[in-house]
Design goal:
The structure holds 2 protein chains of 2 kinds. Chain A folds into 2 domains: 200 residues, no CATH class; 123 residues, STAS domain (Transcription Regulator spoIIAA), CATH 3.30.750. Chain A is α/β, with parallel strands linked by helices. Chain A contains 11 helices and 11 strands. In chain A, strand 9, helix 9 and strand 10 form a beta-alpha-beta unit. The radius of gyration of chain A is 24 Å and the shape is elongated. Chain B is of the alpha/beta class. A 7-stranded mixed β-sheet of chain B has the order 3-2-4-5-1-6-7, with helices on both faces. The chains are: A alpha/beta, B alpha/beta. The interface between A and B is large, with 34 and 37 residues.
């Protein structure tokens, strides 16, 4: 869908008011980041709140004009990305970010001032030495922070050693470049960070891939937190967003309306952000309602749902099967 | 009542055993265990790892016929202990033999909240097995390390109390229903209040967001956050469905513990509702069961003015 839809409607446009208010929470994928803005002579203008995923998109019909573009893509793509990251992981990263912003602000301010003097022409040995000292001090406190919170960083998929190198490179680049925009950093070392967490650290992140071919233009149900869409290949439905008390009936209805032909039916849960026990029960009952020999196959089961299933012990469920990998992979296994 | 007359009772026999130190623990529990083995009665012992080791040493080869479980695993959250006893009783039901158990849910390492819930658990045991199978449960209390008030409460929660000299019926035990009554009082404020959120059906997502964010800010790992959000969502959903369609969420931080409270106007009739394993074919009614399995401690208080459920989660938990 990507290119065509983009050209027509800018579906990846950020629809929220900017600058983002302090307590902004409307967009579930929002990830605050502060930077110190500077004027054209590199004098600091103060702190600015923005979103990590906000980029400039080039208007297709009007080259050279830009619009606020979400790097994560369209709304469904944002939800899919969120599910892949998991809301808990996103909150841990936000918390770490907040803590980082807190202790690093005085360091960033000092560095920012020294940096503007450097680029304003006072490239003396004294300024160079002062900057080096500030950088060293900054990197030392960052190092302490990373060490103290190592378990949390590892938990969210950000191993601290490559993170350390990346931050070092970023700080050096930022001080040395006269431009006001944040410098691009290389992916060093390559492959150290998985795709879903790359966006957290300013690395380009691909929008999440959809596990099944979803028919977004033929939604079965849609509210502010959940979208239910039919899928092709394999045939079934996808739940994208949150399943809770307010929409569990809609989920049960959608499951009851699954294709009644023979063969397995598929439920793509890879875009699921949350599912309560009522939702889990609806899935279990839908599986039990199938004729013997037919299965409801769950794809991309989030850890949260696995955990609930493990505790409520709905087994044995001969009609319910959990696919270990993406549908494509399962199909390949069947063919071989 | 004499020792002989209580021994002849059928049904559930809930007995506190007072002892001072590990040696007395062993010398006062081994006759009970040997009695079970001699009569070919199934026996399950749920105590600390250290005490399991001491009993194994004292019992020698006979220890192989005893089921042992670590109380710090089974009963970290005391609400998980009754289901464990239920499972033990059900596993041997209909064999016509008396069952025996030793369970020590109260030890000095318990936090204040855990202690209260352990005492409530002791009180609820009377109701949980009242009128059921022949089941003799011995609950050891270490007089050397426990506060006198804790020992007094043991007299209130157990119809029978034994020390080295014999077995007596407790004058302080008020009966099955009344023994739970002291646990209907409001709970004290825990730690520092972080957030308050009044919610209705439209704000259930906000409940999840707030709990998730508070847990992340308190330094929790993603697994604990996911567990706590799931539990809090179920408890809040209960408020929407049975508690007048709305509720109030409050979140406290107490050192490394996050406490999430959901309060509503509903009334909880069955104090054992959260410790009965739900039947697979039954719809609904799993929220509090799940909360007990997911959280380190769950406190439920219900009165005519409403119901309060508090979920406690440790930042540094090993599970």
């Amino acid at each position: 869908m990507g290119v065509m839809a983009l050209r027509e409607q800018q579906l990846d446009r950020c629809i929220y008011p900017r600058p983002f208010p302090e307590d902004f929470a409307e967009c579930p994928a929002y990830q605050a980041t502060t930077f110190i803005a500077a004027d054209s002579r590199n004098h600091p203008l103060g702190e600015w709140r923005t979103c990590r995923h906000l980029t400039a998109g080039n208007e297709a019909e009007n080259r050279g004009r830009f619009y606020p573009r979400c790097a994560l893509g369209t709304r469904p793509q944002r939800l899919q990305w969120l599910a892949q990251v998991s809301p808990a992981r996103l909150d841990v990263v936000r918390a770490l970010q907040d803590e980082f912003d807190g202790f690093s602000l005085p360091h960033r301010k000092q560095l920012s001032e020294a940096r503007s003097r450097l680029h304003a022409g006072s490239r003396s040995r004294a300024v160079e030495a002062e900057i080096q000292e500030l950088i060293d001090g900054f990197l030392r406190v960052i190092d302490r922070f990373l060490t103290a919170n190592e378990a949390r960083f590892v938990d969210v998929g950000l191993p601290t050693q490559p993170l350390r190198l990346l931050i070092r490179e970023w700080v050096m680049a930022w001080v040395r470049t006269p431009e006001t925009v944040a410098p691009r950093v290389t992916d060093a070392p390559p492959g150290a960070f998985a795709n879903p967490v790359r966006a957290f650290i300013g690395l380009p992140a691909e929008p999440a891939t959809e596990w099944t071919r979803r028919l977004w233009d033929r939604p079965i149900y849609s509210d502010t937190i959940l979208q239910i869409v039919p899928t092709l290949d394999p045939p079934g439905i996808a739940l994208v967003g949150d399943v809770e008390a307010s929409n569990v009936q809609a989920v049960a209805r959608a499951l009851a309306g699954l294709p009644s032909s023979t063969g397995d039916v598929h439920l793509d849960l890879s875009g699921l952000l949350f599912c309560d026990l009522g939702g889990l029960q609806a899935i279990v009952r839908a599986a039990q309602a199938l004729d013997p020999g037919r299965r409801l196959v769950l794809h991309g089961v989030p850890r949260q749902l696995e955990r609930a299933l493990e505790i409520v012990e709905w087994a044995p469920l001969p009609n319910l099967s959990i696919a270990a990998a993406a549908p494509g992979a399962e199909k390949a296994a069947h063919l071989s | 009542m004499t020792a002989a007359s209580v021994t002849s009772e059928r049904g559930f026999r809930h007995e506190a055993l007072l002892y001072a130190g590990i040696e007395q623990f062993v010398s006062r529990t081994t006759p009970f265990i040997k009695g079970a083995l001699d009569a070919d009665e199934p026996i399950l012992v749920v105590v600390s790892r250290q005490k399991i080791a001491a009993l194994r040493t004292a019992m020698g080869k006979n220890a192989d016929r005893v089921q042992f479980r670590d109380m710090s695993e089974v009963g970290a959250n005391p609400a998980r202990i009754i289901p464990a006893w239920h499972a033990f009783v059900e596993a041997h039901a209909g064999q016509g033999r008396r069952l025996r158990g030793i369970g020590e849910p109260i030890y000095p390492e318990r936090t204040a909240s855990e202690l209260v819930e352990s005492q409530r658990h002791e009180a609820l045991l009377n109701a949980a097995f009242d009128g059921g199978a022949d089941f003799w449960l011995l609950c050891p209390y270490n007089t050397q390390v426990l506060d006198p008030s804790v020992l007094e409460t043991a007299h209130r929660t157990h119809p029978i109390v034994a020390d080295g000299d014999g077995t007596i019926s407790s004058d302080l035990y008020p009966g099955v229903a009344a023994s739970v009554a002291p646990y209907d009082k409001p709970l004290p404020e825990p730690g520092t209040l972080r957030a308050t959120l009044v919610f209705d059906a439209k704000r259930l997502p906000a409940v999840r967001r707030l709990v998730s964010w508070e847990a992340a800010s308190a330094g929790f790992m993603t697994r604990s956050i996911t567990d706590l959000v799931l539990a809090a969502n179920e408890v809040a959903t209960n408020s929407l469905q049975h508690g007048g369609g709305a509720g109030t969420l409050r979140v406290w931080r107490d050192g490394g513990v996050l406490v999430c409270e959901v309060r509503d106007r509903g009334r909880f009739e069955d104090p054992l509702a959260d410790r009965r394993r739900p039947a697979p074919d039954r719809d609904g009614g799993r929220g509090l069961w799940l909360a007990n399995q997911l959280c380190d401690l769950v406190q439920i208080r219900s009165s005519s003015s409403g119901t309060t459920v508090r979920l406690h989660m440790h930042r540094d938990r090993s599970r």
